[in-house]
Each structure stands twice: as C-alpha cells, then as structure tokens.
Design brief:
The protein is globular, with a radius of gyration of 21 Å. Helix 2 (21-51) packs parallel to helix 10 (265-290) and helix 9 packs antiparallel against helix 10. The chain is mainly alpha-helical. The protein is built from eleven helices and three strands. Helices cover 77% and strands 3% of the residues.
C-alpha cells in the first residue's frame, strides 16, 4: 500500500512552445537575445542604483529590488526554455519540476507584494510629501522588502506542499515549456478538483488582495494629483504612469492564467511567455525610458567611461 502512495514518475516531458522543429530552431536566437537583454537590463539597473549616490532613496531602493526579482523570475524558466529549443527530448526531473514551481511562486508572490510597497511609497511621496522622509525611512523600507520576500516564500511553500500531496504514476507530458501548476495537476493519478480549488484560491487571494490595494492606492494618488499644480501633477503622473504600466503588465497574465483560465493551449503558452520572458524585460525598459533620474545617471556613467 505504501508503494502505491509513492510518486512513480521520476521525470516529466515538456511539449514545448510548438511541435515544428524548424520553428523551434528559429526561436532559439530571439529568446536567447531576449534573455540576455533581461539579465543585462535588470542587473544594470541594480548596479546603477547601488553605485550612484543620487539614487540612494527609498523609491530607487525598491526599484532595484524589483529589477533583481525580475532577473530571478526570468532565470527560473527562460534558460531551460532556450536549452530545450535545441533539444529533441525536453525532460525535467521531478525535483527540478517542483523547484520550478517553488521558485516561480516565490518570486512572483514577492513581486506582487513589492509592487504594493512601491505604490505605498508613491502614495506617501505624493499625498504626504512633507512627512515622506520620516514615514518612509531606510529602516521601514528594508522591513517592507523583507515582508515581500517572506510573503512570497510562504505563498510558494503553501503551493508546493499542496502539489506534493499529489500522486504521479502515469502521464508525463506537460503541454508547456515549464512546470505550471494547472498543467502538472492534470497529470496526477487522482481527483484534483478540490485541491485545484484550494491552490487557485491561495493564488487568487494573494493576487486579488494585492491588485485591489494597488487600484485603491493609485486611484487615491491620481485624485490627489488633480489638486496640485500642473508642474507637480505632470511629474507625479509620469512617475505613477510607469508604476501603473508595470502593474498592468504583471497582473494581466496572472489574472488570465489563475483567476480567469481560458483553457486554450496557444493562449496559455503566449501568456506564459509574456509573463516569464517579456515582462521581466519590459520593466527595466519602462523605468529607464520614463524616469529622468535614471536617464541622467546613465548619461553620467557614459560620460565617465
């Protein structure tokens, strides 16, 4: 009886992005370039903020942490995707699959909370500017970062513990390029309806709570901005616009994947690619293009080279 309850499957097989071998070879170079740009872009922002003393403020400290999380999130799935594009047999060990699930939810959960923290920082800066330095000091900023990492870790562990309750003893084919929980659950040799509801509820509560808090924060900020001078409003709106774009890009795919599943394979794969490959690249690009301080720091760095 004990043997029957043990996991028999030792590895899973990825279907990949497509079945065409020619298309996979064609996609190898673009995805490699995208990942390289993601790594360079995010790590460049982290290093720039650390080395430029003009960027040693809570807002940029939070931005550096966002870039680091995006780098980590992309590195969980994209290198494996690139390697598999050049291979016929796209396999991953059971332990590797569980590690992917853990890391994806760890970094994604942490990023959700971090985005809320960044919204709080902008709320205090715009709505209570005279008290900003006393409210959002360095100690509180570090505490908020730690909270985001802790919540991300607790969320990831809760997801992993639930998945480890499943028995895998038959099908091994995952119709994706990484171990996504809904697709892995389909391979279990047991009824997963109840467990699936619990897992989606877990992700849904975190995502919905963070998204609602973000909507409330930015709505209040935008209403407050209307009563300020045009110059101040323009600068505040420019800063908030970058944050709002990042929030939409991050939460859009999450809502479709976990809260409003469409059950269309190509749509799921497109959202997965956008979520894990494209968004981590767009975030540093958005902040670099729309932030005057970051652009000035880059110009100073180039002039000193």
């Amino acid at each position: 009886m004990e043997e029957a309850n043990q996991t028999v499957v030792s590895e899973f097989i990825f279907q990949g992005l497509c079945t065409s071998r020619e298309l996979q070879i064609f996609l190898l170079l673009p995805f490699s370039i995208l990942y390289l740009m993601t790594v360079v872009g995010n790590l460049f922002i982290v290093i720039l903020i650390i080395t430029d003393h003009h960027l040693h403020s809570p807002m940029y400290f939070l931005l550096a942490n966002l870039s680091f999380i995006d780098f980590c999130l992309s590195s969980v799935t994209t290198p494996k995707l690139i390697i598999d594009l050049a291979k016929y047999n796209k396999t991953i060990s059971f332990g590797g699959c569980m590690s992917q699930i853990l890391c994806v939810h760890f970094f994604a959960g942490g990023e959700m909370v971090l985005l809320v923290t960044m919204a709080y920082d902008r709320y205090v800066a715009i709505c209570r500017p005279l008290h900003y330095t006393s409210i959002v000091d360095r100690q509180k900023c570090i505490s908020l970062i730690l909270i985001s990492w802790i919540i991300g870790f607790v969320h990831a562990m809760s997801q992993l513990i639930l998945i480890l309750e499943l028995r895998f003893c038959g099908p091994r084919m995952i119709d994706s390029f990484f171990c996504d929980i809904p697709l892995v659950m389909k391979l279990a040799c047991m009824n997963t309806d109840t467990l699936g509801f619990v897992i989606n509820a877990d992700s849904g509560v975190l995502a919905t709570t963070c998204f609602v808090l973000l909507l409330i924060s930015y709505s209040y900020i935008l209403l407050t901005v209307q009563h300020h001078s045009k110059g101040g409003s323009s600068k505040a709106l420019s800063t908030c616009a970058s944050h709002i774009i990042v929030v939409v890009l991050f939460f859009g795919p999450v809502i479709f994947i976990y809260l409003w599943p469409v059950s269309i394979t190509w749509v799921d794969k497109f959202l997965a690619v956008f979520y894990s490959v494209v968004t981590p690249l767009l975030n540093p690009t958005i902040y670099t293009l729309r932030n005057k301080d970051i652009k000035n720091a880059i110009k100073k760095l180039i002039n000193h080279m």
